[in-house]
Amino acid sequence: MYSIHSDIRRRGHTGKTYFGSARPLVKIPPEVDFATARLSVAHELGHVLVHSRDDGYDEATIRLPSTPEEECLAEYAARLLLMPAPLWSRLAFNVNLAEYCVGRSSAARVTVHSSIVRLGDPDMRDLGVRGAILWRLNPQARQCALLHQRLTPQWHVCPGAFVPIKRSKARCGSLIARVAEECTAVAGSSLENVDIGTFVGSFVVHAFSWGSVVDGTRLVLSVFQTPNFQPNDDSHDTVDKCHADSMPVIGKILI
Question: What is the 3-state secondary structure (H, E, C) of 61-120?
Answer without folding.
Answer: HHHCCCCHHHHHHHHHHHHHHHCCHHHHCCCCCCCCHHHHHHHHHHHHCCEHHHHHHHCC
